[in-house]
């Protein structure tokens, strides 16, 4: 793991009317790290992702990506320099076959400039590269899954498609907004090695998750949000034992899981 | 009592190797199977001028094909880019006036002024529509509707470009068959061109914007730029129709901004079949002649016309082409359960 900082968030604040969805959140992410963001429902995790990726303009605070100030930049500009995201509610292109879904990121100025996933797609062979990415990410080519319409794919594949769409862009950092939710335990188990592989490839991951057990298997560090404020940040095992975290999760769906770590 | 229950079974025919919308052609038979319906349309349209003798009906087909350009453009923008445009009349008007001006002021030959005007007018229309591009759904529709209304009134109020009299003395097209072939060939080229484009990589981006513009932005692509490109392509058809009309009627006037040009293409799209690009052209080739046939009924014409439209839309809301396509690709049979 290299030591250089890839993402720096300083005092990020977002107010919706009188409600502070995010209050003065700081975060440093180093290159090649997997950082988890957890917290009960409504704690501001997705708002954090929206503010960093440019879909929502923060009220206050600064975001730096690879030393460049990206606060308030348009999402397509932020994606263009290598910071992209998946959506919690999946947003595939339902009317297109799965592999054609990946032609879109491969058509982006970034992919044309620096090459898409592993430098591919520059020669106009975008459909072929699309199938390759999907095969790598677990779409069985032999059973024609990459050629199926996105609207006919089950959730597990759609979650992978979300990730594939990010990967096609050849990104430096991906914010994964709940890629595990709605997946079965075995589906997650098959997704974990893939994420580890991405980390090996040098892609930095920020993972917003509710599935703590699975997250802790790959996360180097975890930040806990509650009511828009950062309560604690540190290695997963240490964070989960903190009384403040237990208090935050008290009465929520994940409370039982949190208590298991006692 | 033993009542045999039956259900309808639908089977694909024609192409053996397929997966959803993708198929592999394995023989000349399969190629012919796909080429046949396309050839009917192309050959049929090209032969039409020889089959009809009355000059009046030649004019009707010419106008129908020009409406077809608008309808195909509407279908493309609405169902492949996700922008429902009511600005058809604006494209026709701008294209028409620019072509008429090029011809009367600069003395350009119609065969030059039409393509130049098409290009210039499309650029003008696209630039003027840029502020509307962030809008979606009915908001975009209503905003584009205002453009032809505004343009017509501006010409009237400022008395420019001949004011309410319009521009007279526009040169006509030489040759008896020139107008009808210009209309037929342009509509075929525009329609087949767009059908090809929507499956190319650029077209996929446009379709993706319709499906989910947020994902497109997260993929580092400027949605506005591509939407503008879509509007430009759509306006090419409309502006060409306007430019050609001006030289056919040898006159450009405020009626080029008439809302017929915005509304009829939409009706034709619904009748012919949305999301097909062919359907709208077929719709125009059906609706425009029907509207002419009904002239004998005088004032009741609109009544009959509306009733026919309603029967089409309510009775076969998928549109004629979607229906025909399904029947061509699948056969049905009753099987016992």
Low-confidence stretches of chain A: none
Q: Any idea how many domains of chain B?
A: 1
Largest sheet properties of chain B: 2 strands, antiparallel
Q: What's the CATH architecture of the largest domain in chain A?
A: 3-Layer(aba) Sandwich
Q: What is the CATH top level name of chain B?
A: Mainly Alpha
Strand content of chain B: 5-15%
How many β-strand stretches of chain B? 4
Total number of strands of chain A: 10
Q: Which class best fits the helix and strand makeup of chain B?
A: mainly alpha
Question: Tally the helices of chain B: what do you get?
Answer: 13
Within CATH, the superfamily of the largest domain in chain A carries the name P-loop containing nucleotide triphosphate hydrolases
Task: Label the structural class of chain A.
Answer: alpha/beta
Radius of gyration of chain A, in angstroms, nearest whole number: 18 Å
Spatial strand sequence of the major β-sheet of chain B: 1-4
Gross geometry of chain B: globular
Plain-language structure description:
The complex is a heterodimer of chains A (262) and B (337). Helices cover 36% and strands 24% of the residues of chain A. By secondary structure, chain A is an alpha/beta fold. Chain A folds into two domains: 1-82 and 172-262, 3-Layer(aba) Sandwich (Rossmann fold); 92-170. In chain A, the strands form two sheets. A six-stranded mixed β-sheet of chain A has the order 6-7-8-3-9-10, with helices on both faces. In chain A, strand 1 and strand 2 form a beta hairpin. Chain A is globular and about 50 Å long. Chain A starts with a strand and ends with a helix. Chain B has one domain (6-14, 32-336): ABC transporter involved in vitamin B12 uptake, BtuC (Orthogonal Bundle). Chain B has 13 helices and four strands. Chain B is 68% helix and 6% strand. Chain B is mainly α. Chain B has a two-stranded antiparallel ribbon. Chain B has a two-stranded antiparallel ribbon with strand order 2-3. The longest helix of chain B is centred in the N-terminal third of the chain and has 27 residues, at 55-81. Classes of the chains: A alpha/beta (262), B mainly alpha (337).
């Amino acid at each position: 793991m290299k030591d250089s900082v890839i993402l720096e968030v300083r005092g990020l604040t977002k107010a919706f009317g009188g409600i502070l969805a995010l209050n003065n959140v700081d975060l440093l992410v180093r290159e090649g790290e997997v950082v988890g963001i957890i917290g009960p429902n409504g704690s501001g995790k997705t708002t954090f992702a929206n503010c960093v990726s440019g879909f929502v303009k923060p009220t206050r605070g600064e975001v730096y990506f690879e030393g460049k100030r990206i606060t308030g930049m348009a999402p397509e500009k932020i994606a263009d320099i290598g910071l992209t995201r998946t959506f919690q509610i999946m947003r595939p292109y339902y009317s297109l076959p799965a592999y054609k879904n990946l032609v879109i990121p491969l058509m982006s100025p970034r992919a044309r400039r620096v090459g898409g996933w592993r430098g591919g797609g520059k020669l106009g062979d975008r459909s072929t590269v699309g199938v390759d990415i999907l095969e790598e990410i677990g779409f069985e080519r032999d059973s024609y899954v990459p050629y199926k319409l996105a609207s006919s794919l089950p959730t597990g594949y759609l979650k992978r498609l979300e990730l594939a769409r990010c990967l096609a862009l050849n990104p430096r950092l991906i914010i994964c907004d709940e890629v595990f939710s709605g997946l079965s335990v075995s589906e997650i188990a098959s997704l974990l090695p893939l994420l580890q592989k991405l980390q090996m490839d040098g892609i930095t991951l920020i993972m917003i998750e509710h599935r703590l057990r699975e997250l802790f298997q790959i996360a180097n560090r975890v930040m806990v949000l509650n009511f828009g404020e950062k309560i604690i940040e540190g290695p997963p095992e240490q964070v989960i034992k903190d009384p403040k975290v237990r208090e935050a999760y008290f009465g929520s769906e994940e409370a039982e899981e949190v208590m298991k770590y006692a | 009592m033993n009542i045999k229950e039956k259900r309808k079974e639908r089977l694909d025919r024609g192409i053996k190797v397929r997966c959803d919308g993708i198929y592999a052609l394995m023989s000349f038979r399969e190629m012919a199977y796909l080429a046949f319906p396309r050839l009917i349309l192309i050959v049929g349209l090209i032969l039409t001028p020889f089959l009809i003798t009355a000059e009046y009906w030649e004019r009707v087909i010419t106008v129908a094909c020009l409406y077809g350009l608008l309808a195909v453009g509407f279908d493309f923008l609405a169902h492949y880019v996700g922008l429902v445009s009511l600005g058809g009349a604006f494209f026709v008007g701008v294209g028409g006036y620019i072509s008429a001006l090029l011809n009367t002021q600069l003395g350009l030959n119609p065969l030059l002024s039409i393509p130049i005007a098409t290009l210039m007018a499309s650029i003008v229309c696209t630039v003027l529509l840029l502020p509307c591009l962030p809008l979606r759904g009915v908001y975009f529709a209503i905003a584009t509707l205002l453009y032809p209304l505004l343009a017509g009134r501006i010409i009237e109020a400022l008395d420019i470009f001949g004011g309410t009299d319009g521009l007279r003395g526009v040169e006509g097209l030489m040759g008896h068959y020139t107008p009808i072939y210009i209309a037929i060939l342009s509509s075929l080229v525009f329609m087949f061109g767009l059908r090809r484009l929507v499956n190319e990589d650029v077209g996929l981006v446009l379709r993706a914007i319709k499906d989910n513009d947020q994902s497109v932005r997260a993929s580092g692509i400027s949605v506005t730029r591509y939407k503008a490109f879509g509007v430009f392509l759509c306006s090419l058809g409309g502006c060409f129709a306007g430019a050609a009309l001006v030289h056919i009627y040898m006159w450009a006037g405020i009626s080029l901004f008439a809302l017929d040009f915005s509304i009829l293409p939409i009706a034709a799209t619904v009748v012919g079949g949305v999301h097909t690009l062919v359907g709208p052209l077929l719709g125009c080739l059906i609706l425009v002649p029907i509207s002419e046939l009904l002239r004998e009924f005088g004032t009741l014409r609109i009544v009959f016309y509306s009733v026919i439209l309603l029967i089409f839309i309510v009775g076969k809301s998928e549109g004629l082409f979607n229906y025909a396509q399904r029947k061509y690709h699948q056969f049905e049979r009753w099987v016992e359960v």
